[in-house]
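Hello again, I could really use a second opinion on something today. I owe you a coffee for this, so here goes:
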Amino acid sequence: MPQSNTILLIDDENSLRQVVGRVLELEGYTVLMAANAQRGLELLRQHAEEVLVVLSDVKLPDGHGLSLLPRYKAVAPLAEVILMTAYGTIADGVQAMKSGAFDYLTKGDSDDQLVVVVERAADKARLQRRVAELEKQLAPQFTFDSMIGGSVPLAQAKALALRVSPTDSTVLLEGPTGSGKELFAQAIHAASPRRTKPFVAVNCSAFPKDLLESELLGYRKGAFTGALADKRGLMEEANGGTLFLDEIGELPLELQAKLLRVLETQSFTKIGDTKPISVNVRIVAATNRNLRQEADEGHFRPDLYYRLAVFTVAVPPLNARREDIEPLATYFLHFYAAKLRKRLRGLEPEALTQLQRHDWRGNVRELKNVLERAAILADTDTLTIDDLPTEFQYFTAEPAADEASDKTLRTLEKRQIRTVLQETGGNKMEAARQLGIGTKTLYRKIQEYGL
């Protein structure tokens, strides 16, 4: 892709536009010109992917540069903005820089100074574009289409989440730990109009109560001992985008009241401050608890629960969508094989059967961990049952119909050994103890019965 060298120059003085435009063209730039803010914004929308720098007069016939600055950045977030004025003051310059301007110039300064500042701004804009392109290439694609599995429960949850994604409605994701609630939250964000803005995730159970409030809301310098400088909270970092609150049931009651205010007013007050800050943020929350019951029992604010549960999506556990185990296991196996630089083609049927029969209390996260461990242990190009954890190796099929009706002592012994091995998770010493036989005898019986 050819490197862009486009500058947008907005100034109502025709002579200045011509002089500055000519200077920049001689430096190799393509210069787009506009005499007012409206035309400037039109050109910026048309050439948002090309414009590196917006060079704008502060006083335009239809707007003021400082108030126009957010509009320029909204149309072309990777472009840098330089403001120009005939009567510059230090206060205006400071305010411009705080508002996101790259620099603040006084008209009449030397052409050399103008060129140097524009070049620095253009270099920064080019770097930002390269970084954004690399992040786009390297970042995992958290979309509904990227979710692995074709089971009915997963398809129903995806369809429901997809319906609410284009809105700004608050979403509550319910489901057990490890079922993929954060993946759903990321997919909702990616399918929303906020997709180009930040997705900020915070686990409410990972912070002490006092620290969680300062992380979420931020604080002013001097608000408490150790507050040596102002701090932006995660609520502010997510402005314009999505804030994902995982394990929302762990949120302290006093902080629940502040979150309720954000949902109702889109504003909050930092610790140590008195002035509210306005934000435009969408809340997606997740819980593995029954929040309705928690609210009824007084452990969670009912008003916050009803505000969060505007739209609820139940994320199914893995044992409710067993047909997804094979594609998930295959995906994780290939992922870790590539990471470990191993050649693993797939799973032996017996190993896959054991995975499909497991209860998966840890859900997809547990399956992922099991496959990572198995990939490390695998010595051949196919994952075998011996590569799986011990509890999978002795969890065998239910007795066949002819075995179930067989009352011989041999069959009853085989069935009992199999049951005890399953109950002890393959712990042979404990199984031998429960069966009242020696460990060597148990090993011989395992081999004899093919267990």
Summary: The radius of gyration is 31 Å. Confidence is low (pLDDT under 50) at residues 395-404.
